[in-house]
Amino acid sequence: DRSVSRGLGDVYKRQVLGLRLERYRILNRTKHKQTVREPEFWRNGVLAVATEASDLAPGASADLWLVRSAR
């Protein structure tokens, strides 16, 4: 279920030491608890994924961090 990722809002980007750090705010827009699955956010060029919470209650939000190569 991609309901969590559809609530993705870009809130921060920073480039440091050849890496691009991105922080997104994710939001559960459903009426049910959603599990945040880090593998759903892996894409080509993504080196690391981290989430503030693994489960989101209805209407809850959390930070999601991606680290990418800046090259």
The largest sheet is: 4 strands, antiparallel
From N to C, what is the helix and strand string?
A: EEEEEE
Q: How confident overall, as mean pLDDT? A: 85
* Category from helices, strands and their pairing: mainly beta
Number of helices: 0
* Alpha carbon gap, first and last residue: 31 Å
Beta-strand share of residues: over 45%
Shape: elongated
Helix content: under 10%
Radius of gyration: 12 Å
| Unreliable residue stretches | 1-5
What is the count of β-strands? 6
What order do the strands of the largest sheet run in, or round the barrel if closed? 1-2-6-4
Short précis:
Helix content is 0%, strand content 51%. The protein has 71 residues and is mostly beta strands.
What descriptors fit this protein?
mainly beta, single chain, 6 strands, 4-stranded antiparallel sheet
Write structural notes for this entry.
This protein is mainly beta and 71 residues long. Helices cover 0% and strands 51% of the residues. It contains no helices and 6 strands. The strands form 2 sheets. A 4-stranded antiparallel sheet has the order 1-2-6-4, with no helix packed on it. A two-stranded antiparallel sheet has the order 3-5. A hairpin with a 2-residue loop joins strand 1 and strand 2 (19-27). The chain is elongated and about 40 Å long. The model is unreliable at 1-5 (pLDDT under 50).
Helix-strand blueprint:
Layout: E1 9-16, E2 19-27, E3 34-35, E4 46-51, E5 55-56, E6 61-69
Antiparallel strand pairs: 1-2, 2-6, 3-5, 4-6
